[in-house]
Each structure stands twice: as C-alpha cells, then as structure tokens.
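Hi everyone,

Forwarding the result from last night's run.
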Amino acid sequence: MIATALGQKIARRIRAEGPLAVAAYMAMALHDPEGGYYARRELIGAQGDFITAPEISQVFGELIGLWCAVVWDQLGRPDPVVLAELGPGRGVMIADLLRTVAKMPDFRRALRLYLLETSASLRAEQERRLAKFGPVWVSRLDDLPERPLLVVANEFLDALPVRQFVRRGTGWSERMVTLDHKDRLVFVEGPAGAIASMLVPPVLRDSALEGDVVEISPAALAVAADVGARLSRQTGAALFVDYGYFPSALGTTLRALHQHRAVSVLAAPGTADISAHVDFAAVAEAARAGGAEIHGPVPQACLLVKLGARERAAALRETATPSQRRTLDSGVERLLDCNGMGTLFKAIALVSPGLPTPPGFDTTL
C-alpha cells in the first residue's frame, strides 16, 4: 500500500509511462509542487529532518562571509558584485554572512544579493529573515545578471537527482523505480544498453565488477559546468561545501532522512529528505571543462580552521554566558570533528582563470 498522495501520483505515472529512472523519482519526491518534500515546512533544524552547518554554529556563516570578502578583494573589489547563494535553506548562513560583512562597508555596499530557491515555503522563510537585505530570488543560474560574481552553496549539490547504473556482464543497466505485484514502489534494473555504458565514467567503468553500482548526478555536473562557464567569461569565484567523496568511487550513497533517522527511500515519497554524496572529482572535472580553475577539495575542518574558526569561537566565548559557551564549543567541535563533519564534508572552490588561490585552499586532499 502506497502511503502518500505523492506516492500514488508516482504510481500513476509508472503505470502510464513505465519504470522511472532514479533521478526522475528523486525529482518528483523532492520537488513536486504539491506533495514534494520541499513543499513542506519545518525541514531543517532540531524540529525538522536534518541539520546543516549554519544551524549548528553561527561561526560557519561568519567565516564564509570572511572568505567572500577576501576573494572580493582578490577580484579587484568590483562594485557592484553579485553574491548568489544556491539553496539558501532557511537563510541562516546568508544572514550570518551579511552580519559579518556589515563591518566591511565597502564590500557590503558593493553586494547585490541573489538567492536561487525553488521551494515556495523556503522562499517565504528566507523573506522573513532577509527582507531588509533586499534579496532577489531566481529559479535558474541563467537568471543571475552578467556581473562579477560570488557564489556560495552549502549542502546544495547533494540534493540534486542522481542516476544509478549497475554492472551486468560486459555492460551496464540503469536502476529504475517501478511497482511490484502488490503495488509497492521497488527498485529494478532496466535492460543493459549502450547508452548506459556511455554514461558511466571510464575511470569507474574499467574498475567495476559484476553487480557494482555507479552513481552520477547530471544535474550537479550541469551546475558545475554552468558556473565554470560563467567564471570563464566573467570574473568571480564559487565555494561549494557538501558531504561527499574524492576521488570518484563505486557504490550507492542514496539515502533518505526523516526526523534525523534513516528511512527507506521508497517508503513514503514526499515525507523524507533524499540525497546522495557528492562526487567531487566529477564536479571538479565538469567545472574545469566549463573554463574555471579549481582549488580543492579540502576537508571542511581544514577550510574552517584556516579561516579562523577557533579564534572566532574564542572571541565569542568572551562575552557568552556559560550555557552559550557550551553550545558554542559543541557546535564548533562538531563542524571540525575529524571523525564526522570535519572530514565527511568537503569544500571546493571554482575561480576565474588567473586569480590567486582563495583563502583556505593552500592544501588539497
């Protein structure tokens, strides 16, 4: 029995069109305008399904603001400069960023804030938090003006749909979503074909064994290529922070979270966050092909420490209450934990050709 209205809608599409690619299923589960996950409220934070770095500690957004200010100076201090956040969530990171750069009047005056957001409920929350900053909302990268550009994105690429391919014999078949004899959503493998084999990167195709799975995110690679192309013709830089792996690797990372617990990806579409780890090597290759220069990836902990995470935390502790100090300390340590977020999360910078190495990227994996 399919538990949600969106699940029933997906089932009707499968009956009409046949099995769906995992990417098509993921797109509906997350972005359907009526029943999709991002049409809901209370997605992020302790009361939601997952928590992000900006929600864990204000230090994260403040340091990203510092990164942007230094890079703006490296760009030659263009005025105006577009600051675009991709997938701003509840607007917490950009609010912390803007509070920090308020102390840098020349940079703050030059900024023109753009937010790429497709969720109506999240846009409403962003508007409540950020209205005084005069943001402009867009739905596509192409809607950003052709001006000097700074892009920031935290946990954006992981939410973009992925396709999965399975090695069978000498070829590859695509993993699909269909209905079983009890009308339950299940994974199946489509027929092996030349197109599937062509989509698997050669570095993984040559090393795969029978039954191995390869995940690719055409949408994430398209974003990287588009940003790379923009930076090749217009001065600027982009910073992506996300959980993922480097170099490219075999295996499935697709997962669903509901109330901070892992659940079935197929059980109740529209009620859980679905994501997959980012292949940073593939993102770097796509951005480089677009024309950008690449720095990183580096572990999140490495970036934040080099930007002054511990020093900023120490400064905040001086005026904090004992309770605030405990919260501050636990939050920063969580961001830097070498057995957790500090290593699992990575940062990669895309810059226009010829620019200096951005702060925090003088060490690579």
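The two ends are 46 Å apart (CA to CA).

Cheers,
N.
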